[in-house]
Specification:
Distance between the termini: 22 Å
Number of strands: 8
Order of helices and strands: HEHEHEHEHEHEHEHEH
Structural class: alpha/beta
Bound molecules: pyridoxal-5'-phosphate
Strand content: 15-25%
Number of helices: 9
Number of domains: 1
CATH superfamily: Alanine racemase
CATH architecture: Alpha-Beta Barrel
Helix content: 40-55%
CATH class: Alpha Beta
C-alpha cells in the first residue's frame, strides 16, 4: 500500500473519531527493509521512521541523514543499557523503556549530554511472560519513578498479544495513560492502526503496510 493510502486511512480514522489527524504521528517502521525502499519513502517526503535495533539503525541512518534533513528516528525495540549512549546519538524518541535500571541509565546520560530523547514507557498489557514491558499493575509506580528521575515521559507504548483483540489492549493502555496524566500513546501497527487511532493513539508504528512484508531471509 502506498504511503499516501496509509496517510489517508489515518486521516479518516482520526476524523471519524472526532480527532485532529495532526495529533497522530505516522512512524514508518523501516527495520529489515531494503535501503532502496526506505529511500523511496524519504524521497516522498516522509521523515519519521522507526527501528527496533540500535545496531541496524546505526548502520543506515547516519548516511541517510547526510542526504535527507530533519529525519526523526524512534527506537521501538528493546534497549540494552550498554547501548543507551549510542541510542542517544541516533534517536529522538525511545518507546521501549521498561525497567528502572534502563530509566536510571537514561537519566544519567541525559545529565551528561544535556538532552534526552522523548520517553515512552512500554507496558506489557497482555501480561505475556516472554514480552518486554512493565505489568499494568506496576505501571503507575513506574511512571512515578521515571518522573522522579526527571525523564521526559511523553507517554506509553504497548504491543498487544498476537492472538487477542488489540482494541482491548489499546483501551487499557489509554486508561493507564489517562490516570497518570500522560498524553502520548504509541500503539497500533499495520493490522490495527485504525482501531488504535479510534482509541487515542498519538503514534502509530506501521511497517509492512507501507514497505511490504519484511524479508528476513
Ligand atoms: C516491527 C514492529 C512494528 C511494525 O509492524 P508491522 O506489522 O510491520 O506494521 C511496530 N511496532 C514494533 C514494536 C515493531 O517491532
Amino acid at each position: 500500500m502506498s504511503l499516501e493510502d496509509i496517510q489517508t486511512r489515518i486521516e479518516k480514522s482520526a476524523t471519524g473519531a472526532g480527532r485532529d489527524p495532526a495529533d497522530v504521528t505516522l512512524i514508518a517502521v523501516s527495520k529489515v527493509q531494503p535501503n532502496q525502499r526506505v529511500e523511496d519513502i524519504l524521497k516522498e517526503g516522509h521523515r519519521v521512521f522507526g527501528e527496533n535495533r540500535v545496531q541496524e539503525a546505526a548502520g543506515k541512518w547516519p548516511e541517510f541523514r547526510e542526504t535527507f534533513e530533519n529525519v526523526e528516528l524512534h527506537l521501538i525495540g528493546p534497549l540494552q543499557t550498554n547501548k543507551a549512549r549510542q541510542a542517544f546519538g541516533l534517536f529522538q524518541s525511545i518507546h521501549s523503556v521498561d525497567r528502572l535500571k534502563l530509566a536510571t541509565t537514561i537519566a544519567r546520560l541525559a545529565q551528561e549530554e544535556g538532552h534526552c530523547p522523548d520517553i515512552f514507557l512500554q507496558i506489557n498489557t497482555g501480561e505475556e511472560p516472554q514480552k518486554a514491558g512493565v505489568l499494568p499493575g506496576e505501571a503507575d509506580a513506574f511512571v512515578s519513578e521515571c518522573r522522579a528521575l526527571d525523564l521526559p515521559v511523553r507517554g506509553l507504548m504497548c504491543i498487544p498479544p498476537v492472538d487477542e483483540e488489540p482494541s482491548l489492549h489499546f483501551a487499557l493502555l489509554a486508561k493507564i495513560a489517562e490516570r497518570n496524566g500522560l498524553s502520548g500513546l504509541s500503539m497500533g501497527m499495520s493490522g490495527d492502526f485504525e482501531s488504535a487511532i479510534a482509541l487515542g493513539a498519538t503514534h502509530v508504528r506501521v511497517g509492512s503496510a507501507i514497505f511490504g512484508a519484511r524479508d528476513y531471509g
